[in-house]
Amino acid sequence: MPTPDIGVMSGTPNTGIENSQVFSREVDPMLYFFETDLHPIATRILTSGQKLGYRENSVLPKLTGNPIKKQGTSNMKFEHFEDQVQLAEFYRPTAALTASATSLTVSSSDDDHFRAGDVLLLTNAGGQTERLVVTSVAANTLNVQNPDGTTRTAGIAMTTGDKFYRMENVRAEDSLAPSIRTTKRGGIYNYCEIISETYGLTFVKQATADYNGDPLAREKRKAFSRLLVNLEMMFLFGTRDLSGSTSNPQWSSGGLKYFMELYSDVEIRDAAGFALTRAELTHFLSSVGKGGSPNKVLLCDSRALAAINNMGFSDVRTDSYNQNSIGMNVRKIFGPFGEYELVYEPLFDQIDIYNGSMMVLDMDHIKYRYLEGNGKSFDIKEYPQILADGSISEKGQFMGMCGFQFSSMKTMGWMKNIGA
Q1: Which end is more exposed in the chain, N or C (fewer Cβ atoms within 10 Å of the end residue's Cβ)?
Q2: Which residues touch 12 (CB under 8 Å, ≥6 apart)?
């Protein structure tokens, strides 16, 4: 037997009996990825030319316009203050009010909002209203009388679920000025978090021919895309924390969900158990659209997008029945308080408990913050990584210390469990 093993073909040679190793392989140099468009928010912050690729003609709604605001911070803890003009939008009694009651109970945190002479507007679920005047204030108690100075005997009844409102302070002729009641600013803070993603190859792997081109460049692209997904996760689901370590502290940056749940007056609605109607959607968007920018972003999963598109399709009218296509692709919703740009968020589909989610973002009140000071910037970028002596590998990382600043959260909102 000769060496190498040269065989004999009997009959007309064909591809079945020929040595298959002699045939040239036809390999598409494009490497195809399934996971693209997983980071619509992070993409508006960082691209660095490292995106894996996307469908240029994609019909999926994505974020457009200017990039997210970026601002350096000289400390890993960044803070801001918030204030408002009114002491409170409304109040609720902490005990039921009868028709003849001459005092109204309020929480201990609210009783110092009131002064003698303050006019109150009482309302109840039956649509009734009544005006009363505060005569004096005690702990948790507002003593009241009718505006004409008589004792209250036939007013409206209220439950603890009803609301009342503080109006003007009524004064008598030649009276003293009432004591001042104004707001005190509140501080909000978040942390920058060190986020990184490494990549690397041995020199042997780099020098080996590859059908898909430069293998190290490919690993860099994949690492950067993973970093973008992680940054998107941090933006949405991060929790503000600081580890107990003093030698090497670990900061975690709070995300959108964290701050939505931190504020007690953010509009969060659970749509489980009922179908989302146009009236319900309009009411929700109106609740979060009254303040802030008139141009907001509606971050949706596929279930929420389908529900919205079905609303639009139900109103389509055509002049001809000879139609060869059907469907609807809603990109914007216009309402009495502005417009909402629809953006698909794949992570809401990927993480089961967020299926059916729709979050309203006011981009004017969101900033990307990164550590910067003393002429140094720790924004996300590529860093070479020193390896041990004698290593025959090349390794690097994308890394930065960053976080997100969320302000005026009442201009945002979350509707969850749509279609559940």
Answers
A1: N
A2: none
Task: Report CA Rg, the chain.
Answer: 31
Asked if pLDDT for residue 316 goes beyond 70, the answer is: no
Average pLDDT over residues 194-220: 89
Round to whole Å and give the CA distance between 106 and 98. Answer: 15
Q: How many of the other CB atoms lie within 10 Å of CB of 325?
A: 4
187 phi/psi in degrees, rounded to 5: -95, 140
Place 56 in a pLDDT band, splitting at 50, 70 and 90: very low
- Say which amino acid occupies 418: I
Q: Which residue type, as a one-letter code, is found at position 219?
A: E
Question: Residues, the chain, total?
Answer: 420
Closest among 221, 217, 218, 214 to 197, alpha carbons compared: 221
Q: Enter the pTM of the model.
A: 0.81
Give the distance, in angstroms, between the CA of residue 291 and the centroid of all CA atoms in the same chain.
Answer: 17
Q: What is the mean pLDDT of residues 116-140?
A: 95
Residue 84 CB contacts under 8 Å (≥ 6 apart), including other chains:
183
Peptide bond between residue 4 and the one before it cis (omega within 30 degrees of 0): yes
**pLDDT beyond 80 at 209:** yes
CB 278 within 8 A of CB 334: no
pLDDT at 324 over 60: no
**24-28, 35-39, 237-241, 281-285, range with greatest mean pLDDT:** 237-241
Contacts for 89 with CB less than 8 Å, ≥ 6 apart: none
Pairing of β 332-335 and β 338-344: antiparallel
